[in-house]
Each structure stands twice: as structure tokens, then as C-alpha cells.
């Protein structure tokens, strides 16, 4: 059991109050020498998590030379943003976000991200360094197939018909991953061989262009196709495999981006705390789950800096059921004795902690740490929204916003 009174006193001793973005410079300095800076969030619908990450991102780009932002989003829709901010496509920042049209749209199609996209566009116009914006997630199986076909039509027309023939294996499933998952799991009808055949041929006859990152676009979309097919096959088994395929894919995609950006590349990663906080410091490890934070630390050690985020109370954008209407929901006061509760009791103001060798042992007790997903029912959060965590082992730093508000979606509509 955690000695909560001792942890509370340690928070009071080591926490740094912040009232403005300028007060976060110590976080930037602590993270600036890393190659991978992981910025978390305790929900996918909290304005301050997005705006503070955006300000840290701007500082890391301007002051520490970071190369790109990689997020928990689909590659094709994020690549549209990348093309816009680098001048590969015309239009407006708002138009660049319109490809985020699949539920949960609000994760990236929101006012907070819109402001960051505008800033990245302006930065790239004014500086020789061209900062990128990419998606690391695995969900875009059909969109990635479409992208591969479109790119092949431009640079390798002779390969198009073979690719279309292979991809026709997926047509009976009506672009619905749950249909594919059931078919693959219970009837043994999958398209794994077809996907692999196309990807082997792509590599064998590779003669794509680096102009406007065409080569990179095909490479990552191909990777998505391979791992998304595996992910959806694993979905119906209700074990750790689908989660592990997803997070391992995100690391592989990130490493491909680092390779493409060359020596000295540095990445800023935006993902939920459950992905960027080391799984070995939580009960996820007991369930056989790994995550991005763990995998990167195992391979890159001190070159990784992970900062978690949390709040005591407020409002959040989420849905009560998967695929249903989104709404601003209340975030109740943190559960008594939780990490967020102790941070609030240490003073009802915004604060951050940087964990180091001197104070790490003071924050190594197991405490409940709130996590809110795209599906959220505040009245039942005590039943499963708190992840047992050793905070100083899970993160390198933690930013706490005492009271938060829901972010501002660009469009809110019911799922079709």
C-alpha cells in the first residue's frame, strides 16, 4: 500500500507551480536533449492537454530543433496535414483537417489542433527546416489501400492491376473491420497472403520518388496494411495480441520516420498516457501488454523522455458508447487517494513534477492514475478508469492541470 501522506508531502516539496506557458521552460530543458519526447494525455477530449502539448511542441521545435510531430492518428489523414504544412498541397488549415472524418473525429479535427496546424504551416514557410506531421496508428486499412493504389497509378502504373486484384479480397467486408475480424477468426477467411504478396512486389519493383515524400507515404501505408490486417484478425480473440500489434506498429512506423529524416532526427509524439507511459510501471504488464513508452525505453534508454498529463476535475469531450454522439461530459473530482487527488490536495493549482534520481523513490508507490478514453461514463469511472501506476517509473515528468475543460471539435455529429 502506498504511504499517501508521504507522497503528498513529496509532491509539495518537489512540484513546480505553473501559471503560464513560459513557466514550462524547465520541462523543455529536461526534454530537449532526448531524441523521442512523448507527450501524453489522460483523455482524448481535454482542451488543456492539447494546448499545453502544442506550446511545448512549438518550443521544442524552435529551441531544440525537433524534426516532426507524430500522433495517435491515422497515417493517411495526418499525411494530408503534412502535405499542407509543407506546401505540397494548396488550401487552408481547416481543409487539411477534413480527412479526419471517421469517428472519433474530434481527436484531431478540433480548434486546438487547427491552431497548431496554422503555426506549423507558418513556421515551415519562414524557416529552412521543414517540420512534419504524421500519424502512427494502425486503423486505416482501407484508406491505406486506397492511398497505395493512388500512388502506384502515378509512379508505377504497371503494378496497379495486380494490387487491385489482391485488395479485392477485402471487398466482401464492406470496409467494416468487425466483419473482417469475425470472418478471419471464426471462419479462417483472411486476406493476409494477398496483402503480403502486394507488399513483396512493391519492394521488389521499388522505383518510387522521394519528391514530396511519395516513397515514405507508400512505405508507411504498406506497413499499415500489413499490421492493420494482423490487428483486425487478432481483435476477436480478446487477448493482449491486438493491443500489442497496435503499439508495436506505432514504434515501427516511428522508427521508419526517424530513418527517413536522417541523422540527428528528433521526434515529438502525442499519444494517450496509456501508450506513452511505460507499461512495466502499471498493471498492464501483468496482462501481457506492452506499449510505445516501454518499447522505446527498452531500445533507446535515456534518449526517451515521457511526460504524462492529468487533471483533478472539469469537463471532457467523449461518447457514452462506441460510435455514438459526442458530448461534453463532466469529469468528477478525482477518486480519494488517487494520484490526481494527492496532486490537488498539494495545492489547487497547476503544477508539474520532473522525476530524477534524487526524488524517484518518493514517487514509486502504486497509486491509481485516471485514464479516460473516447468512450466515457463519468458515473462509473471508479469501476475501471484508474490504472495502478508507479509514477516515477512510468514517466519522466508529469503535468497536472487542476481544472480542465472540454476541447472544441470542428464538427460534432452522430456516427452514421
From TrEMBL:
GO terms for biological process: response to antibiotic. It comes from the Bacteria. SUPFAM superfamilies: EreA/ChaN-like. Gene3D superfamilies: Biosynthetic Protein domain (1.20.1440.30), EreA-like (biosynthetic domain) (3.40.1660.10), EreA-like, domain 2 (3.30.1870.10). InterPro entries: Emycin_Estase, Hydrolase/PRTase-associated, UCP036794_erythomycin. This is Erythromycin esterase.
Amino acid at each position: 500500500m502506498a504511504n499517501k501522506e508521504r507522497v503528498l508531502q513529496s509532491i509539495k516539496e518537489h512540484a513546480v507551480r505553473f501559471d503560464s506557458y513560459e513557466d514550462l521552460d524547465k520541462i523543455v530543458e529536461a526534454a530537449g536533449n532526448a531524441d523521442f519526447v512523448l507527450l501524453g494525455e489522460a483523455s482524448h477530449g481535454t482542451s488543456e492537454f492539447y494546448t499545453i502539448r502544442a506550446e511545448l511542441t512549438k518550443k521544442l521545435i524552435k529551441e531544440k530543433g525537433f524534426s516532426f510531430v507524430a500522433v495517435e492518428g491515422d497515417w493517411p489523414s495526418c499525411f494530408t496535414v503534412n502535405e499542407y504544412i509543407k506546401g505540397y498541397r494548396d488550401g487552408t488549415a481547416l481543409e487539411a483537417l477534413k480527412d479526419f472524418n471517421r469517428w472519433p473525429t474530434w481527436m484531431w479535427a478540433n480548434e486546438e489542433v487547427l491552431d497548431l496546424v496554422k503555426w506549423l504551416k507558418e513556421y515551415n514557410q519562414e524557416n529552412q527546416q521543414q517540420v512534419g506531421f504524421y500519424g502512427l496508428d494502425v486503423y486505416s486499412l482501407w484508406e491505406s489501400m486506397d492511398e497505395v493504389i493512388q500512388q502506384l497509378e502515378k509512379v508505377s502504373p504497371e503494378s496497379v492491376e495486380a494490387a487491385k486484384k489482391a485488395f479485392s479480397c477485402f471487398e466482401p467486408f464492406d470496409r467494416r473491420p468487425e466483419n473482417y475480424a469475425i470472418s478471419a477468426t471464426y471462419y479462417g477467411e483472411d486476406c493476409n497472403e494477398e496483402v503480403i504478396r502486394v507488399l513483396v512486389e512493391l519492394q521488389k519493383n521499388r522505383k518510387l520518388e522521394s519528391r514530396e515524400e511519395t516513397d515514405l507515404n507508400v512505405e508507411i501505408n504498406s506497413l499499415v496494411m500489413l499490421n492493420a490486417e494482423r490487428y483486425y484478425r487478432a481483435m476477436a480473440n480478446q487477448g493482449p495480441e491486438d493491443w500489442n500489434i497496435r503499439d508495436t506498429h506505432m514504434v515501427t512506423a516511428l522508427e521508419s520516420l526517424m530513418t527517413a529524416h536522417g541523422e540527428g532526427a528528433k521526434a515529438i509524439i502525442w499519444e494517450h498516457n496509456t501508450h506513452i507511459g511505460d507499461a512495466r510501471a502499471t498493471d498492464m504488464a501483468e496482462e501481457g501488454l506492452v506499449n510505445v513508452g516501454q518499447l522505446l525505453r527498452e531500445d533507446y534508454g535515456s534518449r526517451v523522455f515521457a511526460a504524462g498529463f492529468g487533471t483533478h476535475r472539469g469537463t471532457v469531450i467523449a461518447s457514452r458508447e462506441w460510435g455514438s454522439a459526442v458530448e461534453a461530459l463532466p469529469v468528477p473530482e478525482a477518486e480519494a487517494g488517487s494520484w490526481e487527488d494527492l496532486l490537488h490536495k498539494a495545492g489547487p493549482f497547476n503544477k508539474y513534477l520532473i522525476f530524477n534520481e534524487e526524488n524517484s523513490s518518493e514517487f514509486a508507490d502504486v497509486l491509481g492514475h485516471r485514464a479516460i478514453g473516447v468512450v466515457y461514463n463519468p458515473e462509473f469511472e471508479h469501476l475501471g478508469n484508474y490504472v495502478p501506476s508507479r509514477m516515477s517509473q512510468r514517466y519522466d515528468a508529469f503535468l497536472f492541470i487542476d481544472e480542465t475543460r472540454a476541447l472544441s471539435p470542428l464538427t460534432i455529429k452522430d456516427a452514421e
